[in-house]
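Researcher: Go.
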Amino acid sequence: MKAELKKSAVDLTDLAIGIVVLGIVVSVGATILINVRDTNTANGTAYNLANDAATGIAEYGNWFKIIVIVGVAAVVLSLIFMAFGRRGGGGGGMTY
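Model: Structure:
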């Protein structure tokens, strides 16, 4: 007789750790880019590159809320599919 392990519910720690790490990386990256930009002369090559990169990270920050919402929605959908996806009733007789 084999002991079957129950599948655990969706673990939210991976999502939470990913969001925290992503926020830290973006914050530190933006701070470094702004410091590089401010230490160079205006309209120089390094200044322009750092300014463009800082603008790109700022634009990414606008999408951060949407990324979090999609992650939470994926967790909710996976919980729904885990709860209702294993039902064997119905007349189809087809299992996946």
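Model: Residues 39 and 47 are 8 Å apart (CA to CA).
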